[in-house]
Amino acid sequence: MTGSMKRRTRRRGRRGGKGLILALVLIVLAGAGMGGASYYYIQARNQAAIPKPDELFVRYVSFLSQGSYGEMYGMLDDQSRREISLEDFVARNQNIYEGIEASHIQADIKSVEEPQENIAVVNYQMSLDTVAGAVSFPNQVTFVRDEEGYYHMSWNDRVIFPEFSKTDKVRVYTEKAERGEIYDRNGTLLAGRGAASLVGLVPGKMSAEPGQDMEHLSSLLGISTEGIEKKLGAKWVKGDSLVPLKTLKKVDELNLKSGAPSEENLQDRALQDELLTIPGIMITDTPVRSYPLGEQASHLIGYVQNVTAEDLEKHAGEGYLTDSVIGRSGMEALFENELRGTNGCTVAIIREDGSMNRVLAAIPKQDGRNITLTIDSGLQSAIYQAFKEDKSCSVAMNPYTGEVLALVSTPSYDNNDFILGMSQEKWDALNGDGRNPLLNRFRQRFAPGSSFKPITGAIGLDAGTLDPDRDYGEEGLSWQKDESWGNYHVTTLHNTNPATLEHAMVLSDNIYFAKAALETGYDAFASGLDRLGFNQDLPFEIAVAQSQYSNTERIETEIQLADSGYGQGQVLVNPIHLASLYTMFPNKGNVMKPRLVHDKDMEPEVWLPGVFTPEITDRIENAMKQVVSSPEGTGRAAYREDLTLAGKTGTAEIKASKTDTSGTELGWFAVYTADPGQPAPLLLVSMVEDVKHAGGSGLVVRKDKAVLDAWLPVAPQ
To the nearest whole percent, how much of the chain has pLDDT over 70? Predict the structure, then answer.
C-alpha cells in the first residue's frame, strides 16, 4: 500500500469518527422534534455512497405522499430551519395538502443542474389530484451541499407551488349544485324549491328582562329556553344578528283570502302573529325543499334530510358536505344520484390582500337533473281524497302503455314536516298510530281474494282443464271435495246457478274457482303463475315485494290449491304487480311493463308477451264486463252507461287459522276502461284493510266510482 493510499484511509477513518459524533448529535435533535428524516442522513453517513439530490427529492416526495411532514422537515438545510420552525412547517404543509385533499402526489424529475459549486437544482414536473381535480406544474428545488459533502434542501413556500409566497394562502371554494326537481307528466311540481318562514331573534331588540318572553317563545316553538339561550350564546352572535330559531310552514295568503281557508293555515297564521308580539322576533322567508302535494304523495315522493356522520362515511368521495341533504325515501332516494348534481369546486392561491393569485384547479358546478314522472297530480289527489281515512293503497295505470298515473298509500304523513323539522311529539304520534301512516302499502303484498279469479280462470282455460260453458253444478254456499278435507269447507256468499265461468265471475263464486284450480292441478297452476312473474322481482323503478303463491317452494295440499283458486291460501300479491297483470286483458295476452319515469319519446314496452291467447283474454274480459254491468254483478256500483268498464271485486279473509272467526278482511276492486277508443284510458286497483264491518269490497267499489267520476266526468246529456 502506498503512502497516499494510507493517508486517504486515515482521512476516511477520521471522517467516519466525526460522522459518528454527528450522528449522536442528530439522534438527540431528532428526539427533540427535529424529525425522523435525520435518521436517513445518519444511515447515509455510515455508507460508502452519498445520496444524490434527485434521490433525496424522491424521498422528500415519498414523505409528502405519506403525510410525514416531520420527516420532510428533517431534510431541510440550516438556513431553511432558521426561517421556519418545525411546528410552522408541519402546520403549513398539512393545512395546504390535506385542505385540498391532495392524493396521488408524484414528481417526474426532468434534470439536475449544478450552477455553482455545492449547489444543485432539481427540475421536476409535479402532479397531484385535489378536491377540484388534477393539478400539474413544472417546478424546481435547490439542494445545498454541506462541508461533509451531504445535500440538504433549501426550502421555501415555492416548493409547494411555484407562484406561492410566504403570505399567500390556499383556499378551497365550493359552489353548491341546485338539487333537481321532480314533476308530474303535466309539468306540475312534486318536489322542488319552495319557501318557508324562518323565525329568528335579534338579541339587541329583546326586552330588558326577557325571562318571561323566553318562556313564552319556548312554549310557542317547542324549543327549551336552554336551547334558545345556547343559540344566542354562539360566538358569531352580535346585537344586530338575526339568530335562527326554527323554520315554520309558510302561511298561504291566497288560502286565507278564500271563502273557506283551511284550519291548519289559520292556525299557522295565528302562531306567527303571536310570535311577532315578542320583542326581537323577526319572521323572514327562507328557501327550502318543498312538496306541494304533501301527504297526498308522500309515500311516492319521499323526502330529504341533512346528511349524518354515517352518511358522510358511507358516501365518502361522492361530494357530500356536512350541510348537504340526501334523499331518505321515495323518489328522492331512488333518484338521489340524478337529483343531487355535482358541486362546483375551486382550489386557488390567494394573496395577503384577498385577491386571487392563481386558480390551481376547478370543477364546474353541475345542477341536479330534473325528473318527470308518469304520475298525474290530479288523479293522485282524487284517489287520496277518496281513501284518506282508510288503511289502503291504490295503483292507477294506463292499461295500454303501462304508465303509472298514481300511487297512493293511506293513511299518510306530510313529507314537508321532515324538511321543517319534525317535533318529537309529532314523530312519536306517527310511530304510535295503530294505522301505521309511515307504512308504504303499495310496496307490500297482500292476499288478493277474488280479484285473483280472472287469473285462475285464464290459467285454467290455457291448460285446457276449464270449459267455460260447463255447469259445475249448484253446491249451495258451502262445499268440500270429499271427507278427506275433514271439517274444512270452501264457502261463498252467493248461490251460483248455472255455475259457468261468466256467471261465477259475476257473482264471485269461491266454490267454482276452487274447483277450477283443483282441475288445473298443482303443476299447471303453479307453472301458470310462474309465467306471470310470481316469485320474481317486478321490473319497476320502485323495489316492491315479490308476489307468491306459497310460503314454500310449491303448493303443498289440495285444500291450499283450492283456496289459491280464489286468491286465498298462501297467495300474496303486490298491488302494482296485480295491476300490471290486468293489462293482459285489454292487450290481448300481453302484460305491459309498468313505468314511472315519463319520456314522451318512449314507446310502450311489453313485459310478458303472449302469456295467454287473445281468445282466452277476451273470454275473461267479457266476464269482467258483466261484473260491472250486470245487475247481479259485485262491481255494479261502478256502472256507468257512458263507459265500458271491466273489473273484479275481491274480499280476502285475514285469519290466524282456518277456524278463526274474529279475523279481519281486505277489500279489493280492480277496474279498467275496456273501450280501446277511450281518450283517457285508466286501470285502477285499490285495496282497503279492515272492511269486514264497513261494507266489504263494496266500500272499495264506491270509492273507486268516485275516483272514476272525477277522472272521467260524465258527459252532459
Answer: 92
